[in-house]
From TrEMBL, chain A:
GO biological process, one term: glucose metabolic process
Homology family: Belongs to the glycosyltransferase group 1 family. Glycosyltransferase 4 subfamily.
Species of origin: Candidatus Aquitaenariimonas noxiae
Keyword Glycosyltransferase tagged: yes
Protein name: Glycosyl transferase family 1
Signal sequence annotation: none
Domain Glycosyl transferase family: 208-374
Nucleus as UniProt keyword: no
Pfam families membership: Glycos_transf_1, TreT_GT1
Superkingdom of origin: Bacteria
Every Trehalose synthase N-terminal domain range: 35-174
GO molecular function: glycosyltransferase activity
Subunit structure as annotated in this protein's UniProt entry: Homodimer.
Length: 405, 223
């Protein structure tokens, strides 16, 4: 859990922003917020909650975080849901739906619902809304649902319609719904181990540890080993660049406890990378300082996702003023304006070309990185996210377009 | 000196915090865009003509309204994009009149360029209609004279400046910005009030707007 105090963020965003957060938090006095998701560690949702919950508490908002129980079978099914919602072909049968509903029913029976506002994250706990009474319920979708498998979407709609509001990370994910829906981008914490400034010795130490050389450009993708992050495609991109520029590829990431597919993908990646000593594959579960150091040591950061809810690794890279080449999918174009704060691509060839451009034009790459950092400062830091969540909670009690508090 | 004059009524600074609501409505062609511009809530028109002011506080490559950006960058209709971009928002006293001007600009263009309506955006590049929900809160900052006013202006958030300059005039429908209203009615300095009213705030970043208003007031009261 985050131990950083709210006032410490004033050094990054300015004191007036912190004053506004304090003003706003007073309007939520007496409300109990209950967050519910499916994993306490690993993945973007758990990471955000571990930063947000302590800060909301420090702002005197009575905020809690509970985790549902799942098990291998349940998470195998929800991983299929996850892929299907991203539009990937998945065979989901009645047995899968039965497992999902049965485990969900166990959670309904076991989980204590006590929040004035129950804030449910992603599809895994979605069925809990059956316990709705007089309190308010929000469903927060962190997934790219711009072209979901219709069968699964319709299955989930039966539950979504019972919420008071839904939240998506990009306008492209917004379907027509009979409930209110809001656009809230995720965020990064500039003071966390993953994003804070690091001494050069720390960065150099991490490079030595993993035998990565500063003498050759380092192209990096930080991501879970997940097909939707296309790590095999990244190796193809690297090979295209390598033909013209001697460079290294770094594929690094942890795993989430609700992602059983990760091991298999990691094996495929290792297999494809074998015989090339310049490809470094690192499994770094929850080692935030090392991830931070690797991002800072990189020459170019790539995020070649096929689908992406938002792409917090892109936000992290931009915050470190790194030039980024990333797929034009999901929430990534909200973060990168092409040729201004990074380069967007739609293919392996496009990504390879963009990386070559950046390696050959370091001044241009530097400018893109600097613009990206300012865009993140203004729009994607934790303080903006805290503000949005407090406004979201307040919106449940106000229907107007202009609300006087 | 007018900075020493106590205001009849003190000026309490408010701040405005924005939450973006999704509508699920999207357009792929100019005709669809036009039809939706005519029917969406005013809060949508407000959002797409003002979002850039707060999200791009530094020099930004984006045209100053979302309609112009989409028409130019996605549909490739630069001629229409330029006309939409140069709509002089400050001249419109209400969202309703601004909406009519945007709709008429597109209608006129379509009449003269029928082929433009055959263009579709690629999948994933549709225009998504969003809505601004504003939360207005009084801050602890109160000015009783122009010296206090400039001191507070230097440290208040840009959200507060945004609220008193943009939102008060167009969205709340006060006809002029709050600063000018207060300076004229409570300080009695119409010349200074007019000088601030004459600014076209849409052509400044919010930080530049802050500096400009402070400079105008300081020059007037000789500090």
């Amino acid at each position: 859990m985050n131990t950083t105090k709210i006032n410490e963020y004033a050094a990054v965003v300015g004191q007036p922003i912190i004053d506004d957060l304090k003003l706003l938090s007073k309007r939520l006095k007496g409300k109990v917020i209950q967050n519910i998701n499916s994993t306490a560690v690993g993945g973007g949702v758990a990471e955000i909650l571990s930063r947000m919950v302590p800060l909301l508490r420090e702002l005197n908002i009575d905020t809690h975080w509970d985790v549902i129980k799942g098990g291998r079978q349940f998470f195998d099914v929800t991983k299929k849901f996850h892929n299907a919602l991203h539009g990937r072909p998945e065979e989901i049968n009645q047995r899968d739906l039965d497992i999902f509903l049965e485990i969900s029913q166990n959670n309904i029976e076991e989980m204590d619902i006590y929040g004035d506002i129950v804030f449910v994250h992603d599809p895994q706990p979605i069925v809990l809304v059956k316990k709705k009474k007089e309190n308010k319920w929000i469903w927060r979708c962190h997934i790219d649902v711009s072209s979901p498998n219709q069968m699964i979407w319709e299955f989930l709609e039966d539950f979504i319609f019972n919420y008071d509001a839904a939240v998506f990370s990009s306008p492209a994910f917004s379907p027509k719904l009979p409930i209110r829906q809001f656009l809230i981008s995720p965020s990064i914490d500039p003071l966390s181990d993953k994003n804070r400034e690091l001494p050069q010795e720390t960065i150099d130490g991490v490079l030595r540890k993993y035998e990565i050389y500063k003498s050759k450009p380092i192209i990096t993708q930080i991501s879970r080993f997940d097909r939707l992050k296309d790590p095999l495609g990244v190796i193809e991109v690297y090979k295209q660049v390598k033909r013209y520029r001697d460079c290294q590829l770094l594929l690094a990431g942890g795993g989430a406890s609700d992602d059983p597919e990760g091991k298999k993908v990691l094996e495929e990646v290792k297999d494809k990378a074998k015989h090339d000593p310049d490809i470094h594959i690192l499994l770094l579960p929850q080692n935030d300082i090392e991830i931070n150091a690797l991002q800072r040591a990189s020459t170019v950061i790539i995020q070649k996702s096929i689908k992406e809810g938002f792409g917090l690794t892109v936000t992290e890279a931009l915050w470190k003023a790194k030039p980024v080449v990333a797929s034009n999918v999901g929430g990534i174009p909200l973060q990168i304006t092409h040729k201004y704060s990074g380069l967007l691509c739609n293919s392996i060839e496009g990504a390879g070309f963009a990386i070559k451009q950046l390696l050959n034009s370091p001044e241009y790459a530097k400018k893109l990185g600097e613009n990206g950092r300012e865009h993140v400062r203004n729009n994607f830091l934790l303080t903006r996210h805290l503000k949005d969540y407090m406004l979201l909670f307040l919106s449940l009690y106000h229907r107007e377009d202009v609300v006087y508090l | 000196m007018s900075e020493l004059l106590e205001a009849k009524e003190p000026f309490r600074f408010c701040t405005r915090l924005n939450l973006t609501e999704l509508t699920g409505l999207r357009a792929s062609t100019l005709s669809q865009l036009l039809a939706l511009i005519k029917e969406v809530p005013g809060a949508c028109i407000y959002h797409h003509t003002h979002r850039f002011l707060q999200q791009h506080q530094y020099i930004s490559p984006e045209p100053p309204n979302d309609f112009a950006y989409w028409v130019t960058s996605i549909l490739g209709e630069g001629g229409l994009g330029e006309r939409l971009m140069s709509i002089d928002t400050i001249q419109f006293p209400t969202i309703h009149s601004l909406r009519e001007k945007i709709a008429k600009t597109i209608e006129d263009y379509l009449r003269d360029n029928a082929l433009a309506n055959l263009k579709f955006s690629a999948e994933g590049e549709e225009f998504h209609f969003l809505k601004s929900v504003s939360f207005v809160l009084p801050t602890n900052y109160v000015a009783c004279n122009l010296k206090e006013f400039t001191d507070i202006l230097e440290k208040i958030t840009i959200d507060s400046i945004y609220f008193h300059i943009f939102e008060a005039r167009l969205r709340i429908g006060k006809g002029d910005n709050d600063f000018s209203n207060w300076i004229e009615c409570s300080i009695g300095n119409k010349k200074l009030a007019d000088a601030i009213s004459r600014l076209d705030p849409y052509t400044y970043t919010l930080e530049d707007l802050r500096k400009t208003v402070i400079e105008i007031v300081k020059k007037d009261i000789h500090i």
